Amino acid sequence: MRSALRLLLLVVVVAIGLGALFAWNWWQTADAAGPLTAEQTVVIERGTGPRAIADSLVSSGVIKDRLLFLAVLKLRDLGTRLKAGEYAFAAGQSLNSVIAKVVAGETVVRRVTIAEGLTATEVAALLNATPGMTGKAHVPPEGSVLPETYHYSLGDDRQEIIRRARIAMRDTLR
What we know:
Number of strands: 4
Mean pLDDT: 90
CATH class of the largest domain: Alpha Beta
Low-confidence stretches: none
Largest sheet: 2 strands, antiparallel
Radius of gyration: 25 Å
Structural class: mainly alpha
Number of helices: 6
Number of domains: 2
Strand order of the largest sheet: 1-2
């Protein structure tokens, strides 16, 4: 009886040790350089769940271990905090930094410059030709938009840029 108890205790200690070693190895892997050799952009659509995001990141070469990604999300209770958007991942970016970027919503920031001297028709044409936006920009009243560089994200509405430019002009004139 006593030797069986010692054997059981030994098995439990070995199992805990192996489990800890396995967890430590996974944690080290999460902080190690990722598989990307060049910058990669990935778009995460609204409503995409953690498993689909993991699949997308694996297929894009951003991460190599889907299960580790999901395990880290689960352990840190971050599965519901992932944000949709267009993300640019650097070469060698670690799994932990990939997760941090998507949780923080650090999406790609695009820019469009409305140059001084453009007519209202030219402003609308510029915005309608700018890639990555949705909707149609309508011609604003002449002289109502502030010449400036405006930031936008993939999928932002063109008319929203017109609205922001008109508000900026109004605020500048005040």
